[in-house]
Automatic annotation (TrEMBL):
Domain of life: Eukaryota
Biased composition (Gly residues): 228-252
Lineage: Eukaryota, Viridiplantae, Streptophyta, Embryophyta, Tracheophyta
Residues covered by region (Disordered): 219-278
Name the record gives this protein: Os05g0527300 protein
Matches recorded under Pfam families: Retrotran_gag_2
């Protein structure tokens, strides 16, 4: 009894400060702090109901010889009530105003605790499910790496607040799942590591993003065009590769005959010589090895169809006289993109001796 009176005399929870007041979005964090403080004071039973309420009255004997029984108030009950009210007061002090109004009528710490658990346990589960879906579906899109990783980390923190801790491996998996094909080389590097912290993965992604930014700001416009990104790039169909635009026209001074968007030197005429640089690593055209997407990917293996063609293409170094001819003839119609059928009566003989003047012959 002396021990109970001593406990009731002072507030064992008076020195505990809770940084998170309970609201609709932080039940798990709030609960963790409250339970730590209450357990530290060895008063958890007052929250869970494990510490039973003593009887308010007890029967004792009175008189010199103890021949008379009397009913008196139980001092242990008074001590229990004092301690329980201290726990209840501490609990109420950790609630936001709108939450406090819902439990203000509870008379014991256990009653208030049970009501709060019933109110927020289902909300916490729904929040956990929604946050996990958001982690799975969030994509980088146009966000920077810093913005994207910060957003994913915030979602992981919400999962932790809902009572489900997301470790670094899981969060890294969510992050790389939301990246596009541009980041495939660095993704391969990250996945290939046995262990990697979130900080290390973030550092590699940020470094790769910076290399991309430097490349795109320099001589990487052709590489971008090959990947189908950016404006004004890409291949065109027509006779020239000059300063043309979209539509049809002559083959004069860069007006592009055919379909496609023009680009200064960005297109390759059908059947002509492709003077674009070829990468010695992936064997694709439009960039050199110093700007190759796979330069830092130790596990990269070039596509066989590109590797096989690495030595099969020769550059025509012959010079040809400009005859000023306005019409040209070919025996390989499939080499031409823009063509007209010959309607005349003259006959044309090729080097092999074959020839025809039939009106359906294509020239």
């Amino acid at each position: 009894m002396a021990s109970s009176s001593k406990t009731a005399a002072g507030n064992p929870l008076g020195g505990n400060a809770i940084s998170e007041k309970l609201s609709k979005s932080n039940h798990a964090l709030w609960k963790a702090q409250v339970m730590a403080a209450v357990r530290g004071a060895r008063l958890e039973g007052h929250l869970t109901g494990a510490t039973k309420t003593p009887n308010a009255l007890i029967t004792t004997t009175a008189g010199d010889k103890g021949e008379k029984e009397v009913t008196v108030r139980n001092p242990e009950f008074d001590d229990w009530v004092a301690t329980d009210q201290q726990v209840l007061g501490f609990l109420l002090s950790t609630l936001a105003r709108d939450v406090l109004a819902q439990v203000a009528t509870c008379g014991t710490a256990a009653a208030a605790w049970q009501m709060l658990e019933e109110m927020y346990s289902s909300v916490t589960r729904a929040r956990f499910i929604n946050t996990r879906i958001a982690l799975s579906n969030t994509k980088k899109g146009t966000l920077s790496i810093n913005e994207y990783v910060s957003k994913m980390k915030a979602l992981a923190d919400e999962m932790t607040a809902a009572g489900k801790i997301v470790d670094d491996d899981d969060l890294i998996s969510y992050i790389i799942a939301g990246l596009d094909d541009t980041y495939e080389p660095v993704i391969s590097t990250i996945v290939g590591k046995d262990t990697m912290t979130l900080g290390e993965a973030y550092s590699q992604l940020l470094s790769f993003e910076q290399r991309l930014a430097l490349r795109h700001g320099g001589d990487s416009s052709v590489n971008l065009a090959n990947r189908g990104r950016g404006g004004g790039g890409g291949q065109q169909r027509g006779g020239n590769t000059g300063n043309g635009g979209r539509g049809r026209g002559g083959n004069n001074n860069g007006a592009n005959r055919g379909r496609g968007r023009g680009n200064n030197g960005g297109a390759r005429p059908p059947g002509g010589v492709d003077n674009r640089p070829k990468c010695q690593l992936c064997y694709k055209r439009g960039h050199t090895v110093i700007n190759c997407w796979y330069r830092y990917d130790e596990d990269f293996v070039p596509d066989e169809k590109y590797a096989g063609s690495a030595t099969s293409y020769g550059i025509d170094t012959n010079w040809y006289v400009d005859t000023s001819a306005t019409d040209h003839v070919t025996g390989e119609l499939d080499k031409l993109t823009v063509r007209d059928r010959y309607k005349g009566q003259d006959q044309v003989h090729t080097a092999s001796g074959a020839g025809s003047g039939h009106e359906e012959t294509s020239v």
